[in-house]
């Protein structure tokens, strides 16, 4: 899974006031128009710029490539419970067979048996495994998820998101991405 970023669009990497990206997956990017609007409204600092310039009759400005928010935005501890975030938690893999194709989600304990639609009972599953498991428990069918479902933190999703970088990373972004991961000895 890849986020497609067009270098010709000159997106700006958005950093929090602590110079960490607001999000790794999807990578926190704003289009150049929104970045310039935020600069004009004095909401961000320009950290780095592209060589491209935008002009109006009375104004000229190089396009920002990296911006940081002036005010720190406290990140949420827990992400929203969405299909995308379930897939990201499970690394876009079926938790029964490992396939990355035709993903949906499965109630580990079926709803008909009291299972709820919560982080702790939903896993990513490919359609064939989901159909095979049907309305049975993992023990009844012998299909145990590779990872027990859990409520991830934003940090968990950021760590997983690093495995799925965008197709394009501008050189000016590299100093601000992945700097807070543990280094290999």
How does this structure look, described?
There is one protein chain. With 185 residues, the protein is an alpha+beta fold. The model has no long low-confidence stretch (mean pLDDT 89). The protein has five helices and six strands; from the N terminus they run E-E-H-E-E-H-E-E-H-H-H. The protein has a four-stranded mixed β-sheet with strand order 2-1-4-3. The chain has a two-stranded antiparallel sheet with strand order 5-6. Helix content is 19%, strand content 22%. The radius of gyration is 21 Å and the shape is elongated. The longest helix has 9 residues, at 32-40.
In short, what is this structure?
The chain has 185 residues and is of the alpha+beta class. 19% of the residues lie in helices and 22% in strands.
